Amino acid sequence: MKVDNDLRESIRECAYQHGFDLCHFSLPKIASQDRKALDNWVDLNMHADMAWMAEKSRLERRKDPDSMMDDVQTVISLAMRHAPSPYSLEQANSSSTKGNIASYAHGVDYHDVMKKHLKALARDWDVLLGEHEQRVYVDTAPVLEHALAASAGLGWQGKHTLTIHRQQGSWMMLGELFTSVKIPVDSPASEHCGSCTACIDICPTRAIVAPYVVDANLCISYLTIEYKGFIPYKLRSLMGNRIYGCDDCQAICPWNNKAETPDTDLLTPRGENILPELAMLLHLDEQGFRERFRKSPVKRTGRAAFLRNVCIAMGNSGNMEFVPLLLKALHDVEPLIRGHAIWALATLHTLQNIDGFIEELIELKKKEENNDVLKEIEAILSLK
Ligand code: SF4
Ligand code: SF4
């Protein structure tokens, strides 16, 4: 089927009616510089523990959107914006009783919201375009979404690697619809970072190792959401009170200061996860965690890794009121939580007398069977 420019605009209008803020069209091709950049990133192990990123067949598919379905003619990149709640970088670093959750996760899980709207949109396009093949993706398949969005003119990839639109900024989530219908494509986006380096300079862990290159091994978003192991020592104190994701590189971006506030916010309408109390979170058992985050993307991280992050934030808070709770966490069933509670207590106790805590650690060492937790105990004892 051939689509003219008028019909293309009807398709776009239909996307707006379904709650999407941006809708752009590209060929199912990844530019050669983006393919090369992906290969280099994986070769340098910047994908960290995300083995699926480096897995050969998935890597090849990521570089070749054509392979995602038979006869794909057009990729439609769609963005749904969310309104960030007031956020200050001081708040993310300062002593506090609260944890910082990335803005996009303040409400319901964007995967669920976007998928629901994409599927409804696909049904309407079925009517508009007649019989054709289409598939929808929201962060669930090997799709190089930011590169596709840039070639569709939806926005350019900033030096922090996220997509920025000139009027609408970068607080948005992306989804894609692949179709067998040939739709006239949009012009690629031009780049507008210029000489700005604000995101590189502000990054707490120096994870933006070069313009347009983020080393996941250092990125707080990766560490707090995807990574399920013991957080490297040198990064813990740099995490501040960020317990799920990190907004710093977007919060500092001048294009977000200029962006208009979205008329509707389907992703974070309730904002129930804005600065939750850390103490309340460390109380959550497995069932409590599942109930508390049932509709939130936070559930994907799991209790053990999430409470690991909470322990680190407590350690960084300088707030001695957390000590009783952390002492209780030393006996949690999850080694990840026990290990990071040890670090948090040691960090807090450097502010005050540590002797009582050392005695507690010596007792713990006699009973502990997990090697990683034992390493955490040894690391503190060796400082004595
Ligand atoms: S999300 Fe945070 S840690 Fe990651 S690159 Fe941006 S500022 Fe750095
Ligand atoms: S902060 Fe500056 S360099 Fe970074 S993405 Fe925004 S405009 Fe580009």
Report the C-alpha radius of gyration, rounded.
23 Å
N/C terminus separation: 74 Å
The chain-level structural class is alpha+beta
- Fraction in beta strands: 5-15%
Strand order of the largest sheet: 1-2-7-4
Count of helices?
19
What order do the helices and strands follow? Answer: HEHHHEHEHEHEEEHEEHHEHHHHHHHHH
Give the helix level as a range of percent: 40-55%
Count of individual beta strands: 10
Q: Ligands bound here?
A: iron/sulfur cluster
Can you walk through the features of this model?
By secondary structure, the protein is an alpha+beta fold. 43% of the residues lie in helices and 10% in strands. It has 2 domains: 5-93 and 109-179, no CATH class; 198-381, no CATH class. The protein contains 19 helices and 10 strands. The strands form 4 sheets. Strands 1-2-7-4 form a 4-stranded antiparallel β-sheet, with helices on both faces. A two-stranded parallel sheet has the order 3-10. The longest helix has 20 residues, at 110-129. The chain binds iron/sulfur cluster (2 copies). Residues 160, 203-205, 207-208, 214, 219-221, 246, 248-249 line the site of one iron/sulfur cluster.
Indicate the topology.
Layout: H1 5-17, E1 22-26, H2 32-43, H3 51-54, H4 56-63, E2 74-81, H5 89-93, E3 100-101, H6 110-129, E4 134-137, H7 145-151, E5 156-157, E6 163-164, E7 172-179, H8 198-202, E8 208-210, E9 213-214, H9 220-226, H10 233-236, E10 242-244, H11 248-251, H12 254-258, H13 278-282, H14 286-292, H15 303-317, H16 323-329, H17 335-349, H18 355-367, H19 371-381
Parallel strand pairs: 3-10
Antiparallel strand pairs: 1-2, 2-7, 4-7, 5-6, 8-9
The protein binds iron/sulfur cluster (SF4) (2 copies).
One iron/sulfur cluster (SF4) binds next to helix 9 and helix 11.
